[in-house]
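Field log, afternoon session.

UNIT: design team B
ACTIVITY: writing a sequence onto a fixed backbone
BACKBONE:
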């Protein structure tokens, strides 16, 4: 869940209240949150909320359709070529939806490859659009610099170990308006690492794209290498999602959901 502060002009009274709250409780390392109403800090900007839920829904659709695509051929290879006559790098021990794929099972699952492949590719373009929107917003608004980039002190071994120990005990550190160092590093890795890689490997599996831009697949070692990397990156993103939901529950499910839906971290009194 992302933290941004509203940049719209505030009334003088509201600004004084926000400054006072900052000086009295938020600490010198966090920015002053703007307010949707007097006394109600804005936790997430509209752009962050919209792209968050758009990507969440698209990821669910991509996960379901991706599973169907894997079922059609649950064997993974490395390099350019890979088929039923090629030794796999590894196989998932599940029945396939095609009789031509050897799995060791005496039956096949229903073939859902047609609609799932179409929906997978169409949904992927929505994710690309949402990702570009969020990236441009984060760069030009200063969101990445203020809210995701950790300070030098945050990266000290002692500070990281303290936060890691708290997480292992399922006790969150920090306040409601900032991310701790581990959260910042995790979000940075997903936004600038795992997310671009899932898009890159996905494009590298498309013959139409690689015919125009062959370096996309050549840099990965071939179409089958791209598919294998795509699979492992998906597993990482699923793991991140599970931990993300766990942290939301530990931090207060209703409060976190309210912030990501309405923007305000607290209910108006």
């Amino acid at each position: 869940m992302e933290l941004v502060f509203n940049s719209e002009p505030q009334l003088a009274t509201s600004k004084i209240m926000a400054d006072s709250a900052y000086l009295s409780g938020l600490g010198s390392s966090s920015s002053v949150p703007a307010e949707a109403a007097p006394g109600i800090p804005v936790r997430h900007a509209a752009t962050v909320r919209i792209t968050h839920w758009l990507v969440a829904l698209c990821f669910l659709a991509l996960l379901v359709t991706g599973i169907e695509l894997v079922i059609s051929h649950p064997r993974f290879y490395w390099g350019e070529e890979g088929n039923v006559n090629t030794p796999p790098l590894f196989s998932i021990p599940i029945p396939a939806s095609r009789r031509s794929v050897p799995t060791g099972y005496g039956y096949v699952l229903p073939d859902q490859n047609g609609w799932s492949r179409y929906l997978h590719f169409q949904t992927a373009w929505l994710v690309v659009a949402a990702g570009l929107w969020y990236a441009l917003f984060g760069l030009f608004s200063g969101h990445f610099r203020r809210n995701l980039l950790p300070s030098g002190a945050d990266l000290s071994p002692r500070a990281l170990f303290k936060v890691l120990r708290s997480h292992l005990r399922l006790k969150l550190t920090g306040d409601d308006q900032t991310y701790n160092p581990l959260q910042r590093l995790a979000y940075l890795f997903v936004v600038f690492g795992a997310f671009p890689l899932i898009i890159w490997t996905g494009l590298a599996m498309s013959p139409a794209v690689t015919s125009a831009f062959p370096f996309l697949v050549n840099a990965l070692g071939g179409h089958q290498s791209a598919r294998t990397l795509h699979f492992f990156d998906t597993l990482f993103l699923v793991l991140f999602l599970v931990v993300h939901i766990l942290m939301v529950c530990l931090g207060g499910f209703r409060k976190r959901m309210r912030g990501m839906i309405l923007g305000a971290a607290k209910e108006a009194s």
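LOG NOTE: The chain has one domain: 47-262.
NEXT ACTIVITY: expression trials, pending approval
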